[in-house]
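Hi there. Long-time user, first ticket. I'm pasting a complex I've been working with (about 234 residues overall). I'd like to know whether the download I got is complete or cut off, because the file seemed smaller than I expected. Thanks.
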Amino acid sequence: EVQLVESGGGLVKPGGSLRLSCAASGFTFSSYSMNWVRQAPGKGLEWVSSISSSSSYIYYADSVKGRFTISRDNAKNSLYLQMNSLRAEDTAVYYCAREESYYDSSGYSHDAFDIWGQGTMVTVSS
Amino acid sequence: DIQMTQSPSSLSASVGDRVTITCRASQGISNSLAWYQQKPGKAPKLLLYAASRLESGVPSRFSGSGSGTDYTLTISSLQPEDFATYYCQQYYSTPPCTFGQGTKLEIK
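Hi, the file is complete. Here it is re-exported in full:
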């Protein structure tokens, strides 16, 4: 079964750090770009960060740039998000998501998030 | 960044109704659009990509259309399990990919 399982969430004080993990199974993890997407309580979805299959390309949302670091270990089929200098506004459920490339007849790649984990809650509060 | 605006923000409908949700991009996105369904306490689920291509396993009552800046998600005959929140996402200009604010579909 294709599966993503997040862990590492919890309660942390403002300014603190947390490391999220996402364990992948049931597919060739090293072939896919991966993403972190978050959802604040009662709010919509916000893309946080992405990493290409070989870690060559890494991107961040402006809201987390300089504070969060995405990484992966293809040998361990795992994705990580190191979160430093946490703020109250970082409080959210954090999802990892696989990015699938669907090619159309012209060869254009449509990159959608086809597999999601169940999410892990991060609460930043004093 | 490309802004995505969904309408309506919420919608009440009955089982069997035909429902349409609209997503407008702040600039043309060349059909680089996905739709997701999210139920309370669950992760989002991919329904469509490339604006109109149905993800494997998704019922055919879901369909998508549009071009340029304007896109729609249509559910032809609402089923009880379809009551959820729906999000559009553009991946034409990334990073960042951006999501609409969501449309909550409720039972009338």
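A couple of notes from our side: Residues 40 and 86 of chain B are 11 Å apart (CA to CA). The longest strand of chain B covers residues 19-25.
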